[in-house]
Amino acid sequence: MPDSLNPTVTPTASTAGQPVRFRGGGFTVKRHPWAALGAFAVLIGLWEGASRLGLASPLFLPPPSAVAHALAGMVTDGSLWLNLKASLARIAVGWVMGTAGGMLVGFAMGIFSTARAVGVPLVSAFFPIPKIALLPLFILWFGIGEPSKFATIGFGVFFPTVIATYSAIDQVPRNLIRMAQSFGLPWGSILRSIVLPGALPGILAGFRITASIALILVVAAEMIGAEYGIGAFVLMAGNLMQTDTLLAGVLVLSLLGLAIGTVLSQLERRLLNWR
Amino acid sequence: MTLARLTRRALIATAGAAFAAGTLMSAALAQPLEKATVGALALSSSGPIFIAKAKGYFEKEGLDVDVKMFTSAQQVPVAVASGDVDFGVTGLTAGFYNLASKGAVTIIAAQSRDEPGFPLSAYMATNAAYDAGLKTPADLKGKRIAITTVGSTFHYMIGLLAHKHGFTVKDVTMVPLQDVPKMVAAFKGGQVDAIIAPSTVSRQLASDGAGKILGWVGDETPWQLGALFTAPKTMKDRRPLVEKFVRAYKTALAEYHAAFNGKDASGALVKGPGYDELLGIIADATKQKPEIVAAGLPYVDPQARLLVDDVVNQVKFWQSEGQVDKSLDPKSVMDLSVAGE
Amino acid sequence: MRLLVSDLTHRYDDLTVLDGIDLTLAEGEILAVIGPSGCGKSTLLGIAGGIVAPTSGSIRVEGEVPDGCLNPITFIFQDFALLPWRTVEDNIALVLEHHKLSAAERRERVDSGLRRMGLSEFRNALPKQLSGGMRQRVGIARALAVRPAMLLLDEPLSALDAQTRELLMDDFLELWRREKTTALYVTHNLDEALRLADRVCVLSRRPGRIRELVTIEVPRERRQEPSAQAHLAEVRGRLWHLMKAEAQMADREIARA
């Protein structure tokens, strides 16, 4: 036999046998904590390089250094804090109002079938209306002060919260409710001890979405006569064609989104450690 | 083969256009037309461009000009800066000067002006503010006024008015609401004391009884509202094109001026030669009724002369407001070598 | 506490799941209910526990309840039905929360349940940290905390592995040795029925009717002895014969439908 041709497969002495080849591996998710940062760094580096080499016009794509400079300007003249404070207050009030209302209605729809029968078509009808299209109406209803801004954000947050809440209540395991009933727990206790905590994961997932919506809508809300606010700042930079300032504002918005996301992740980890 | 076909198609198109215009057959047939685009708003202030196009003045210069319509004044200089269009005509804003300061656009000739006797933009007071004593434009000091955006023409109009009556923009509260419909909503809702509104809007509001017209910007503070502009690169590399374009534009401008801008001894506007024809052209292009167009036709200089001092003043105003970089030399935003000033 | 079921019928829409059930549980008796899947065993239990309303027929209980009984008829569930967000002790305390009890008694009921089920050291654990057997022990401790007069057990061991099942059967035997609580025990496992029940009720395939009620003559505590094996084997044979026929026919009907 020509052993030399295929030495590993030939069944030679029984003492040697044949090693089992490893064929698992791959298809698993590994953590690469620095990969994302690295990719960002490379991207920013390329961007800056392209500007420095004159490949990209500073008007069309301001280099990161110009954006950083604009951002630094906002920090030193205090306008960053002024704008951020105004926007955060609007987001907070609008979001809290929309969320409180949405959860109330969502709970009613999750628990009472009549409320659901009435609510589902209404929500389906009103949810897709772009809130920006309603701004002139909001001005008439709520004026151009803070109330119309709260309303813009609140309305935007309200409908997704309703949907998230009643869907979350649907996700509460029925067997737990049956269990509670079999032990004679009163209606209110079942709601408090079972439905509310059981719906919490779904509601918190909804918060993630509504927080982003609030952030998007703060820009729309600040179209209405806002003196300060990150949204107003971005709009003004756009109107004035100050593209570096524009991107600095957008950067602040996205950092704000990142911060809110992180807070929500912490909250989830805290409240949902039982999962 | 390709060249032949192209030429034939160009000839047919040219012949058709020339026939429509009713003249200029021989001039057009001489050589293929050079393509050019101009960005404009569907407003009567863009009238001379529509006239030059409809009456074949561009073709006479050997140009095949495509007019691209935009919906806001801000978009036009951006389109010029990005090379989407070769020329633009629109109102001058802080955003425009910022683009100019980055070398993206330059003014080459005048467009419309606010002039006494030409009602373009009105100062309007709500009924409540009027009853409370807001009777003249000078009373706007200390009031809340809705504008579209910071850096807009409305913003500058307030600056001019303030300067004339010895106050500053800091003495009024400007409420930026992004667009005219929202300004009207805030005005009707009594959220502001006043607005500066285009003539059609202000006349509508006044006839609805929603407010009172206090006066017209043209009467109060004449200024260079708009301009014809292009990219400095076009000016450098395609100067013959710019020359042809401006020549055709000036022809239309003169015709527009003669038809619409004439006054009699008492200062009232009178209809000039070709009034109805030109009005029809503008009404077609702006998709407005002729009587509405007629009510808001702006003044243009027949020679396309720019109010240079006013443009310098605009730049200085924006610089003092912090909207435009202080290092910008006001003279550098214009290149009037072609228009001949 | 005794349970009296008479002429009980239950339908879901036009699907009859239980048809004419007559059944009596004596004081302290443990009745196993077996039958093929879908025969209505769990529905019967739900009706007995008052969480499913029967279409017709009556279901009643009679007799004394033990001292300190808070919930006479009490369930033990197949899937344990623990609140995943509550610790072991809070899961037990849940069913006491709506009763007026002194803090000391509350504590005592929770503690004694934990102690009896060997859960004292896991009192602060969350359900996800426990094995299946441990979770069911929490379920049993929770049931004991209300001092029930009758237990309704819905396949309580079917989610568990074989060894855990053996261990928990021992726990049940110990519980019934001490408490003598009447119990209705639904299962599809013959071993559980033969180890734990006094009588076994075989339900037919759907619509569930009582095929036969078999009494196991040997007392529970002597069923591990060699002398009992012959009888148990005979009962097992009979039960399996009944079950097998029903299960096969049920399978065919499902295949046809």
TrEMBL record, chain A:
InterPro entries: MetI-like, MetI-like_sf. One of its GO terms (biological process) is transmembrane transport. Keywords: Cell membrane, Membrane, Transmembrane, Transmembrane helix, Transport. It is a multi-pass membrane protein. It is found in: Cell membrane. The chain crosses the membrane at residues 34-54, 66-84, 91-112, 118-143, 150-169, 189-207, 214-240, 246-267. Its main location: membrane. CDD domains: TM_PBP2. GO terms for cellular component: plasma membrane. Pfam families: BPD_transp_1. Residues 80-264 form the ABC transmembrane type-1 domain. Belongs to the binding-protein-dependent transport system permease family. This is NitT/TauT family transport system permease protein. It comes from Azospirillum oryzae.
From TrEMBL, chain B:
It holds the Pfam family NMT1. This is NitT/TauT family transport system substrate-binding protein. It comes from the Bacteria. Keywords: Signal. Its main location: periplasm. Residues 37-261 form the Solute-binding protein family 3/N-terminal domain. It is found in: Periplasm. GO terms for biological process: alkanesulfonate transmembrane transport. One of its GO terms (cellular component) is periplasmic space. Residues 1-20 form the signal peptide. Belongs to the bacterial solute-binding protein SsuA/TauA family.
UniProtKB/TrEMBL annotation, chain C:
Keywords: ATP-binding, Nucleotide-binding, Transport. InterPro entries: AAA+_ATPase, ABC_transporter-like_ATP-bd, ABC_transporter-like_CS, ABC_transporter_ATP-bind, P-loop_NTPase. Pfam families: ABC_tran. Signal peptide: none annotated. GO terms for molecular function: ATP binding; ATP hydrolysis activity. Residues 3-232 form the ABC transporter domain. The keyword ATP-binding applies. Belongs to the ABC transporter superfamily. PANTHER family: ABC TRANSPORTER ATP-BINDING PROTEIN, TAURINE IMPORT ATP-BINDING PROTEIN-RELATED. This is NitT/TauT family transport system ATP-binding protein. It comes from Azospirillum oryzae.
